[in-house]
Design brief:
Elements: H1 3-6, E1 13-19, H2 27-40, E2 45-49, H3 64-75, E3 82-84, E4 102-109, H4 110-113, E5 122-124, E6 138-143, H5 152-160, H6 166-177, H7 182-191
Parallel strand pairs: 1-2, 1-4, 2-3, 4-6, 5-6
Helix pairs in contact: 5-6
Length: about 200
Amino acid sequence: MRYTQLNEDVAKDIAVFYGGRFQPMHKGHHKVYMDLVEQFGSDNVFIATTVSKTATVERDPFTFEEKKMIMNTMFGIPENKIVQTQPYRPDVKLTGKNPDSTAVVLVFSAKDAGRLKRGGFLRDYEPGAEMVPSDQGAYIYEVPIQEGGMSATDFRTAMQSPQLDQNQKMMKFREFFGSINASVYNFIGKRLNAGAS
């Protein structure tokens, strides 16, 4: 046991933040979310997303509210489980939980988790181990990539492509989300200038 561990508190609650740009969220992301809900409980799992100050229309076409609408409509994720906060430094207060007694688990794919430096404040998540509250540390939980590593960039490119007709774009939409919703399809098409009517 390290000396610093002797002075650390033990968290009584947990907030699991699945972070990302989600421009937009796809069915692989949704599968990760549902796996987290199964593991940690629906009251403890949150989507952490925001739009960067350096965002570009090409890379980040959807606002936070639009991303939330897509997640809620396409996947039924409750709006109160989607918080506008930095994925790498989420604000626990936005979940309604007490930061002084809540451990924070940051969930990323291996690609994104590799950007985080472990040691000191950031530690690897270990199931069943005692955890410290959010002011004393955070835990990184790597999850496998789902659905063959679907790409939101590829989806946006396809929806904008003049080479694809509406039927082909609808097929891309269904492949990406797992189902069709006409209002979301039309919204995304218009937002990406794909010519959907």
